Amino acid sequence: VQQADGNERLVESMGSVKAANKGLLEQIRSQQNDVAQLTQQCVSCEEQAEQLRRHHEMERERFRQDAQHQAAILREHWAERSCEVQNKLRAQLRSVELKA
Fold it and tell me: In whole angstroms, what is the distance from residue 56 CA to residue 72 CA?
């Protein structure tokens, strides 16, 4: 009788352990799914960050090229304007020299 009671308690304990193990396995599966989702989100965020970095680099390069172009236009304009002013001043100087 004592042995039967001991066996019955042992079977009950094993049932409890089995149920606990089953719950733990479910938690592990759930956590594995969570880790997989978080990993995918991380990969997606890294890809998005890389796309933003490339876009920023392209915008920076476009801005640099535009600034160089604008600077070249201004240099050309001021070089032309400088020649015009020099020619005008030379003409005025000749006029003054001829009158003198």
Answer: 24
